């Protein structure tokens, strides 16, 4: 069998499964292997582009549009609380496929708005059930956490202690590396973006402030502002 025939067959199957996901019964590795076959025998750029399109992304234009509700959320929160506008951070996460999570996807940061550089963005792979964002995805409702309180007892724990001694209710599927990135993150509120047309979870809007502002962040007015931001952002993903 010629290389051209092998390449054509592999590309055709990858493309067919991309266009008909309901008929895709292959494992992640099988799909990746098909793309690798096509790349090895020729037309590599085409194969990788097909896989890249399947994984998906958020366009630059959409990211710019998503910045608007994030900016409005920061301004509104600063107006109804005593929290300095420079200490409020709003991040928009969207569920997208990745090479390691082709079917369920992971939550990727597509917008980050804050007037200060700290705290720095994390490099955590936010899968379903992992940490606060994973809970928001699983429970499909607003969730919040004070990291200083949640991790207070374990702030100085070692990697071994994290694995063996810290309760699962605290770890929430976070790795030790994940935990070290967020343990000083203060108070976080995550609000889900749910498509009202089909009930699908699209991602979440996350607001971060210092832990000393926790009580102000729990008022009905503040929660409604964050939910409005999430609802508006969700409509911009269509």
Rg measurement, Å: 21 Å
Specify the number of helices: 11
**N-to-C SSE series?**
HHHHEEHEHHHHEEHH
> Which regions have little confidence, pLDDT < 50, spanning 5+ residues?
38-55
Query: Biggest sheet: strands, sense, closure?
Result: 5 strands, antiparallel
Mean pLDDT, all residues:
83
Measured distance between first and last alpha carbons: 44 Å
Structure summary, number of beta strands: 5
Coarse morphology: globular
Kindly estimate the percentage of residues that lie in beta strands according to DSSP.
15-25%
Helix/strand-derived class?
A: alpha+beta
Instruction: Please list the strands of the largest sheet in the order they lie side by side.
Output: 2-1-5-4-3
Helical content band: 40-55%
Chain oligomer state: single chain
How would you concisely characterize the structure shown here?
This protein is an alpha+beta fold and 238 residues long. It is built from 11 helices and 5 strands, in the order ααααββαβααααββαα. Helix 1 (3-19) runs antiparallel to helix 2 (28-41) and helix 2 (28-41) runs antiparallel to helix 3 (44-55).
Protein architecture, described:
Residues 38-55 have low confidence and may be disordered. The protein has helices at residues 3-19, 28-41, 44-55, 60-80, 131-139, 147-151, 159-164, 168-171, 176-182, 214-217, 220-235, and strands at residues 89-98, 101-113, 143-146, 187-194, 201-209. Helix 1 (3-19) runs antiparallel to helix 2 (28-41) and helix 1 packs parallel to helix 3. By secondary structure, the protein is of the alpha+beta class. The relative contact order is 0.14. 48% of the residues lie in helices and 18% in strands.
